[in-house]
Amino acid sequence: MPGVVIVGAQWGDEGKGKITDLLAERATMIVRFQGGNNAGHTIVREGKEYKFHLIPSGILHSQKTCVIGNGVVVDPRVLLGEIDNLKRAGISVANLRISANAHLIMPYHVLLDQAGETKLGKLSIGTTRRGIGPCYADKALRLGIRVQDLLDEKILRTKIRAALEPKQQALRELGVQRRKQRKEAGEDAKAAPEGSTAGGPDPRLDLHAMVEDHINFGHRLEPHIADTAKLCWDALDDDETVIFEGAQATLLDLDHGTYPFVTSSNPIAGAATVGAGVGPTDITEVWGIAKAYATRVGAGPFPTELEDETGERMVERGHEFGTTTGRRRRCGWMDLVALRYAVRLNRMDSLAITKLDVLSGLGPLRVAVRYRSKEGAVLDSFPYHQSILHSATPEYEELPGFEEEIGDCREEADLPQAARDYLAYISDFVKVPIRLVGVGPDREQTIRIDA
Ligand code: GDP
Ligand code: IMO
Ligand code: MG
User: pLDDT by residue (tens digit) across 249-260?
Assistant: First the structure.
């Protein structure tokens, strides 16, 4: 009954997609358990790049079952787009299963997320604007629409009406705000592009059209809708390996991340149980995925951020632009205080360190080993108080860098000594073995150390 969780150890985009695709070799089922199409997971196989937002990163293994669990929020339009793209690329989605209990991101969730981000005076989180927060909020308010509702027109209509009712005011304000913005920009409000709120009521909010669209989505998705918790139980009870693939990451966790600069779900390993419907003792292994440095997209504290030439070189060498929104990722040194926090929160037993190749030629490497508060106190642990974290400065250990390109290394022994020492330092500091090392985006560009 091995249940293996793959979790992001930093602020996302650590390369979870690539590692999931690799570890999927030994699994029969791969399950996404939280998040939605805010995620962007990239897999490179034989030079061909695949990008997934909702579909589990095991999908390239056509014999394995890929599950979108109950904890995921699903934008059906996006999901169907991904299914179509895969089919066009000749990849089978016959084994894709979607939990009937997963919640749907509706058009009004996307509009409200976009509005929340642009509202003047409101703290901007820098969300992906995909409707994630408003959808999870409706789930908690018990106003959510679930995948199973797509199969019953009457229920769907009643639920959408109920969900829209308390949002009328906000959606009206949004329309007014947009019209004002366009007027100020000297644009003709009536000549608004299709789907915009500028020229009148937003066509995306029309109840009848929304119901009709979603019934059509339901027809297309029906063959994939299932009781996915039971699928997991059956596999685990048959002693098959099930991989629970996390999206986002530990420091974006709604409870344990840098709130409010977080996502609206729980990406940590413990959440795999709730988001897939299995028990805590079904989880037998936890893999943390961390980059050899650190990145973050969107707003929020990032103690080791580099706003200098070295940071710029990390962006260039690592192609640090978001898979989902194309935004430039903020870059900085590896933060071992934060990593040790992530290790404990998730009780990781193995680490995969990705993008080690990006560090070659950067000169001496730095790793944060403690923080100092603005009052001068030494902080060995990740501070629980946000005000302290926001003003904390990292203190670094400097380690020798390496100049050699390492993209062709396939064994640990092929790596330059300085790169091996760097990995050993990280592993010793957080007391977790590093079992996979990424030396390039392609799945072959991986060093397995007892994995
Ligand atoms: P995820 O969200 O955690 O799945 O990560 P993303 O796919 O958003 O971002 C990781 C990026 O780094 C992708 O473009 C990957 O192709 C790439 N990548 C993954 N591992 C490595 C690696 O070891 N080296 C390099 N250079 N790129 C990598
Ligand atoms: P993957 O799975 C990196 C960030 C957003 C924003 C915050 C909240 O590819 O690692 P949201 O749209 O979730 O309400 O945005 O979370 N964020 C991510 N950053 N990788 C991701 O996913 C992310 N998903 C959300 O940039 O700061
Ligand atoms: Mg990503």
Answer: 999 999 999 999
